[in-house]
Amino acid sequence: MEIEAVGYGTFRTPAGVARQAVADAIKVGYRHIDTAAVYENETEVGQGIKDSGVARKDLFVTSKLWNTERGYDKTKAAFQASLDRLDMDYLDLYLIHWPANTRQFGDQAESLNAETWRALEDLYNEGKIRAIGVSNFMPHHVEALMKTARIKPMVDQIEVHPGWTHATEIKALQAMDILVEGWAPLGGQGATVLTNPTMIEIGEKHGKSSAQVALRWSLQQGVLPLPKSTHIERMKQNADIFDFELSDAEMATISALKDLGGQSVDPDEVDY
Length: 272
Ligand SMILES: NC(=O)c1ccc[n+]([C@@H]2O[C@H](COP(=O)([O-])OP(=O)(O)OC[C@H]3O[C@@H](n4cnc5c(N)ncnc54)[C@H](OP(=O)(O)O)[C@@H]3O)[C@@H](O)[C@H]2O)c1
Prior knowledge:
The protein is of the alpha/beta class. Helix content is 42%, strand content 13%. It contains eleven helices and eight strands. It has helices spanning 15-28, 42-52, 72-86, 102-105, 109-125, 139-145, 167-175, 197-206, 210-219, 232-239, 248-255, and strands at residues 8-9, 32-34, 60-65, 91-96, 129-135, 155-159, 179-183, 224-225. The chain has an eight-stranded parallel sheet with strand order 1-2-3-4-5-6-7-8. It binds NADP nicotinamide-adenine-dinucleotide phosphate (NAP). Residues 9-12, 34, 97, 135-136, 157, 183-189, 194, 209, 211, 226-231, 234, 237-238 line the site of NADP nicotinamide-adenine-dinucleotide phosphate (NAP). NADP nicotinamide-adenine-dinucleotide phosphate (NAP) is lined by residues 9-12, 34, 97, 135-136, 157, 183-189, 194, 209, 211, 226-231, 234, 237-238.
């Protein structure tokens, strides 16, 4: 199956804004929408999709299983609840939002991830999800999952932006033939990726904004970015990244930038 190379993110898009924002995003050309149960906007995302007038089959819709719903039965129920809120009868992609980690679950973490994954595999085999994957899984979490998995994760959505590159992990995941999606590709709320002078300077050389440079830097590593904006002009700008190319030197300069903020968390250290 195919996936649109730039997705539209909806994290921190309040329910009251999400319906219009998603309809606008689709109207300006996005065909790939990324939401999650924990964003508490699935209902409005689903309404925005309907308002757009674009047929469901022409869109790629992702949602994610929240951490409180891990385990076989709970996962199946949570998936159905997401589908109901979105008012859809299938998803294009469903992800385990975060791996259960040993900090929280000790030696039960691995089996909990395995049981959650088994539910995704069954939902996939039942035809309710077109592709299944994980999010915030580092290569070692994927390797652990593969001990019992019948189906390899097709996608891993991890934090990727200048200042938080995950370069080694991206290479390892791509070597496993897993598509890496980059969340917070602009750094997310409160980051300084877009105001960084080097990012702005590189953008000026190409007649592009620092946001477009950040997104192009992701794409050129084979990472699918998921920018979020509730502003139509920015939505357009964030998708207009196919008419320029960063040089190897520019890619290296951007990759070497440090401390640009963002969430920048280690999935083995979080307590959610
Ligand atoms: N799997 C996970 O654990 C996980 C975690 C976080 C995010 N995500 C996904 O990844 C998506 C993107 O991440 P994110 O929303 O945290 O951050 P992001 O897309 O990196 O950044 C969004 C921020 O940048 C601003 N912005 C967008 N385009 C801009 C532009 N062209 N120029 C200047 N500012 C711009 C937005 O403001 P305005 O809206 O005001 O334009 C917003 O404040 C999420 O929406 C979600 O779908 C997944």
